[in-house]
Design a protein that fits this description.
The chain is of the alpha+beta class. It has 2 helices and 5 strands.
Length: 111
């Protein structure tokens, strides 16, 4: 009987976790320039916040030029970016973290 009670307690804890504590694949926002966001994933935060961070990162990155980089915090998140480029486009993979919260996005920017 105590095994069943333990199992029920574990299941109840899992169900009680907020949805934001689990990773979620989010719909991508409309890209402001010539290009598009290709994926967006939120862990520990909502998809709404993840979309805001994606757009704020884009604004930070393109502040000086289309091929620019973001070197400051975005909505209090620290972001790192890895990219590949060819003469006509940039493909970027971005991870933004704030404590246990993480937003991961990919984008393709036409140059």
């Amino acid at each position: 009987m105590s095994r069943l009670a333990g199992l029920i307690a574990v299941l109840a804890l899992f169900v009680a976790l907020p949805a934001s504590a689990q990773a979620a694949t989010c719909s991508v926002p409309k890209y402001p320039d010539s290009g598009y966001f290709t994926s967006l994933k939120a862990t520990g935060t909502s998809c709404t916040d993840a979309r805001r961070i994606a757009l704020a990162f884009h604004e930070c990155r393109t502040k000086r030029s289309v091929t620019g980089r973001c070197t400051s915090k975005v909505r209090r998140y620290s972001c790192t970016e890895k990219r590949t480029t060819i003469s006509t486009e940039i493909n970027g993979r971005v991870t933004c973290k704030r404590g246990s919260r993480t937003v991961a996005l990919t984008y393709q920017q036409n140059t």
